[in-house]
Structure formats: C-alpha cells, structure tokens
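Reproducibility note. Readers wishing to regenerate the assembly model reported in the main text can use the exact inputs given here. Chain order matters: entities are listed in the order in which they were concatenated for prediction.
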Amino acid sequence: MGMARWIGLALLAVAPLAGMGEYPLHLLILCLLWGFVYTGWAIMGRLGMVSLGHGAFLGIGAYVVVMGWNHYHLSPWLGLPLALGLAALIAVLIGYPCFRFRIVGHYFALVTLALAEVARLLIIALRDYTGGSLGVTPQTALAGSAWSLGAMQFSAKLVWFYVILAVWLGGLWVWTRVDRSMARLALEAISHEEEAAASIGMNVTRLKLSVTLVSALLTCLGGVLYAQYQLYVSPETVSGIGISLQMVFGAIAGGMFVRLGPTVGAAFTLLLAEGLRLTLGHDIHGLDTTIYGLMLVLFIIFMPKGILGAAREAYDKRRGAARAATA
Amino acid sequence: MLQLDRVSAGYGGFQALFDVSLEVKAGESVAVIGPNGAGKTTLLRVISKLIPASGGAIAMEGRALDGVPAHQVIGLGIAHVPENRRLFPRLTVEENLKMGGFPQAARARYAERLDFVYTLFPRMKERRAQPAGTLSGGEQQMCAIGRALMSGPKLLLLDEPSAGLAPVVVQAIFGLIRRICGDGYTVLIVEQNIRQVLKVVDRAYLLETGRIKTSGSAAELLGSEEIRKAYLGL
Amino acid sequence: MHIFDVFLLEAVVNGILLGGILALLALGLNLIFGVIDVVWICYAELIMIGMYSVYYLHNVYHWPLALAFLACVLLVAALGALLHVLVIRPVLAAEPINQLLVTGGVLFFLQAVATLVFGVEFKNIGVNLPAFEVGGMYLSLARLIAFGVALAGMVAVYLFLKRSYLGTAIRAISQDRGIMPLMGVNPNRIFVLTSALGGALAGLAACLLVLQYDIHPAIGLSFGPITFLVCVLGGLGNLIGGFIAAFIFAQFISVGGYFLALEWGYVLAFLFFIGMMFWRPQGLLGGK
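Running the prediction on these inputs yields the following structure tokens for the assembly.
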C-alpha cells in the first residue's frame, strides 16, 4: 500500500507536464485546492466538533488579502499572516467560550453557523470596501508579465498547480500529525465521554482549541489561495452557510475519517458538476446540485463513512477474512 | 387471565429470563419477588412488549401477545406502572392522568375514571394542577398508579412500587395497593420488598437470576424456611 | 427631535411585527426539535417551496388566493411528514449530527429542485396591500395581517398542545419517549404528526411571507439562519423561549437597521446571539 501511494503521488506530480489541457488542469487544481480546504475542516469534524461556520475563515482569508492588496497595496504575502492572525483570533474568541461552557452538538453547529453568516453579512455591509454582493477582483499586477511574485499572481496554471499540490500535501501532513498525536486519542475519548475525560485531568478545552486553531488556519490559507488563483471572490462563494455546508458535505461524502477522504469528496463534487454540465449542457441549471443534494442525503443515510471510508471498510473486511482463512 | 409459557428474553447478547412460566387468574393478586437483578423488571417489560420475547408464549385472556405492538397492549387491558414511576415531569398531575386515558376506548369514560382516581387518591385532586415532577416520591407513585387506572385496565402491572420510597411512605403505598387488590383488580406486582408485598397478595413466584425458583400462596412463602433465611434475614 | 422619535417608534413597531413572523417560524422548528430532537436545517426551504406553490396556484392556475393558501399549508404539512418518514427516520438511531447534516442535504436538494423547476428569476404574487399612516408612522397592511395571523396560529397551536389528547401526547413524548407505548401511543405516529404540524406552520409562514417578499430559490438563506438562532437563543425546543427570543431578535434587526444600515441590523443581531451563547449557552429559557 505504501509504495502505491508514492507512485500515485509521482504520477500526479508529472501529470500536467504530460500535456494536459488547460481546462482539465484547472479542474485538477480546484480538486486539490478544495480537497485541501475540506481536509482542513475534517481535522475538526472527525473529532466530533462539527462546524457549520468554516465559511467565515475561508472568507477572512480571501477578503483580507484582496482588500489589503486593492486598498493598501499590501502584498498578499503580508496579507497572508494578517489573515491567519485574524482567523486565529476569531477561532479562539468563539472556540474558547464554546469549549469552556461545553457548547456541543446542535448548539455548537448553530453557533458556528451564526459566525459564517456574520462574516457574510459583514462583507456585504462593508460594500464600499468589499464590493458587496457583486464580489471583488484583486487588481492585476500582471500587465505584460506572466507572473508577479510580490502580488502572488501567476498567469501560468502550471505554477499554480505545483503551489497548490505542495499546499495540499502539507494539509495531508498536518492531518496525519493531528491524527497521530496524543491529542487525538484524548479527544476521541472526550467526544464520547466528556465528563470522564475531564475527571482524569485532561485539559479538554486546550486540546479542542488547538485543533480548532489548526483547522481555522488551514481553511484561511485555502481562502487566500482561492482568491489569488481564481482572481474573483464574492460573499456567497467564500462565506456564509452555503459554502460552509458544502465543505462539510464534501468531507463527509468522501469520508471524514480517512485522510484522503475529503479530497475524494472534493473531486467527486467537482466531477459530478462537470460531468452533468458536459452531458446535459448549460440549460439544465441546477441539475448537478439536485443530484448532489440527493446523493448527500443518501450518503448520510446509507454510507455515513463516505465513499472512501466505506471502500476502506470493505477492503479491510475482505483482507481480514482472507487473513482469517489463511491463518 | 395472563399466562406466560416458558418465556425467555434478554438485551442484546445478555439473556435475563430463562423459560419463565407463570399465570395470573382473574381477580387474583400475584407477586413476583426476588433479589436485585433477578429479571423482575424485564419480566414486566416483556409482558408490555417493550422488549421482545426471544422464546416462549404470552397470552392475555387466551389471546396471544405474539404479533401485538407495544402500543396496543394497553388495548388488551394490560396497564403497566413502570419502575421509578416515569411520570411526565412537566405535565400536571391531571395531564398525566389524561395521558393514562389516551386510548380511544378509554376516552368516553374519562370524566368518570378521573373522578374515581381522585376519590382513591384525594391528594392527587389537591395537586391536580401541579407539575408532576414537583411531587414527593409517594405522591408520584400514587399518580403513576392512578394514571394506569385511567385506562380501565383488566390487569395492572406494578413494577417495584416501593423503590426509592421512605418506609413510612412504603406502608401507605402498600395500603393503597391492598385496597386496589381488594376492589377486585387483577394485579401482578414485582417487588424487592418481600415482607410487605407478601402481606398484600394472594400468591407469589420467586424469581432468581431469570428463573422461577418456587411459587405458592403468600402464606406458604412467608412461612418458608428458605425464603425467611435468604430474604427476610431470619 | 419629534420626527426622530416617530421613525424610531416605527422601527420598534416594525420590529414587533417582524417578531411575530419570526416567532411563528421559531415555533415550527422548536416543535420539531423539542419532540423529535432533530433540527430541520432545511426548514426555510420548505417555506420557500410553499411560497412557490402559492405563486403557481394563484398566479399561474388562477386559483383564488384563499384556496391557494390552504393548499400551501396542506402541501407543506405533507412535505414535513414525508421528510420525516423518508429522511429523518432512517437516521434517528445514528449520531445526532447526522440528523442535522441529512436535513442540510435536503436543503441543497430543495434549493436545486426549485432552481430547476422554477428558474432563478424573482417572482412575486403581485398582491399589493397598502400601507397606512398611524400617527406619523407608515405601517404596511401586509405586515399587520401577517402579524395577526401568526399570532392566531400560535394561539391555535398552544390550545391544541394544551387541551387535546394528541397535543398532550406531543408534549409528553418530549419528556419521556420510552413509556409512550404504555400509554397506548405509537411514538412513530406522533413523530409523523408533529412533522406534519411543523410543516403546516411552515406553510402558514409561507403564506404570510409571500404577501411581502419576492420568491427565489435561495431566499431560504435569508431567514433560515435567523430562525435557528432565534430558537437557540430562546432555548432549543422551548416554545415560549423561542417566542420571546423572536421579538428580541427582531428588535435588534429593526432598530439596529434604523440606526445603521439594514445589514448592520442583522450583524448586530447575530453578534448579540453569539454573545448570548456565552452568557447563557442553554438559551434564555433553555434547560435541557
């Protein structure tokens, strides 16, 4: 299994060089980018902290860098730490009281939902700065040149591919680290037995907060990259309940408890939309989302572990049976 | 009236009742006594179909309980007063009683039966508008029994009526139960308080670790050496 | 100074009128949560479908408005029951968060179906009720009617829950689900009934909203989140808490919107909510 992983990665890394078209490359980039974002969410989600508000962090990432650049000529490289700082602040500000006062489950989900909506409404309310619902584009620094490092703008998709590939891998690495650390064991116990865990002296709040922070920062970074790649952001695409739910569903559809699950979910969502668009054309507006919504309902009812999770379970079961047979 | 024929039941992988056979004739009052964990509560829950029987047969007035869903058992005339009373805490006493009279067949006689319960338990009438959760333990037990009586049952199942109550209150409750038995109700009581319950019923079964060990009239069992040694500390 | 006061008063009154509708919305959601222990994230989308049904029955098929309203209430009631049977019931035994998420899936689905079937242009039933002046304030008749009907609806539900056998059973099941069969109550039937009632309330809300607002597949997003927050603010599942919270929230929106711009009113209300969560996480009257 380990070898296959490295081979797969190598293939992925050289795929665009083998002459992929512009548009498929664009899809691949989006797959990895959203895969990264969904993975960031899943770091929290799989430990029982289901946030419906990650749109807020995405929006912070996207809008802080774009506003900084457009209004203050602040390089996105400087805007990035600013955005991350703000995201961290919000995460702690909301997370600390939530975890301290044991706001969990439905209540937690709805508080985070409020957060995403506040972010969206704030962006709209500040329309003089942000362009409101119409969205905003980072001013181009590419007059004549193919790239501008200072402005974090590259016209060549290939460059973006490698940037986002690296970030995506980084996200998987973070996921693995969180997964393996002691915190994960503690938190799994906690998410099922809060009182018991607290009684043996674990600092539940601090553990939850650190995981939340990691998740928020990754999502924020995703927002920054999205803004710089796509060169257009609007309140609906990067904040609010819509995109927040989409993150949750992408992670769940692919398999929240498996490392590559969220990425699979992102790929699934994108390919579904594209596939439908190609076969049915632009006229049938909304069919892809209809099927997406329907599939989500079916997934949660029949495959709560997601595509990859269910596949992995089936694989493990078969391997276990084979092993038992040969034992 | 009620017949259990080699009934077995359990929870998941754990079996709590093994081939239990007993019967309750019309007008009788019968107790099932035994220590903690013997399966007494399970027994009543199987009769009410709250849990399925894994083996054996239960019949009420000759009618097999086999395919009957839990919410239709009351329609067969079996009313169950659950362990720990299980009143609806935020509903008033009267609303709890009203829930007891929920079945369509019972609604026509609601007023009459409410009157009867209030006569039987005057304290309930005093507290009719109070949330049931604010009642004392003994009052809650009265209310729970009253609630079961609202459906005009043929058979009353009482699950550990003395549980969690102070001795003085237990006396009062058993006094009430004796009165109910005396009024001709058919009653099946499950109890840990052996001494008190044997003074009130006609017959009893001894249930130990899911099996019926002995049975006999209340007097017989009260006099039995085995019971006196093991359970009455004599 | 005098004019300033009147406009403020108007904002307060409009806040009260808004509160009435929000309270109706919250009632349906709280009922479902209090009884079945599930949050219908797609609640606003059910209302959206209801609004479209009024439009199509009245404006396209020329049904009289009253009949369209009645049909709407019945339709959304049926949708509510269907939602429970097809979507909620299969996941009732699963993690609570799955129940929340599955209704999120339905949210996407309904929005998408509406886009497919009804298109993205804004629609309006074109019933224009006048506004009239009371002491310098301009109040919309549509809003007043909505307020009155909402209040009447809530009183009706209150009486139903308090007096009738089924209503009492609905209240009982939220307090002790396990012994309901001993009362001769089939819990499943109560859940379906409650879902239908929640749907009916959504349908009623749809009738009231369609008098005032345009219809669009995504309008659920403009009052859905607010409804959840009102419910949580009042204590999730607590009908009276939701009622009170609705009016408080509406005042924030209305008066906040008066002093600042419209969106700021919402932002303020949301921030108030987040603040309240830390002061009283279980909600104003919550206690679960």
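We highlight two features of this model. The mean pLDDT of chain B is 88. The beta strands of chain B are 2-11, 14-24, 29-33, 55-60, 63-64, 78-81, 155-159, 186-191, 203-208, 211-217.
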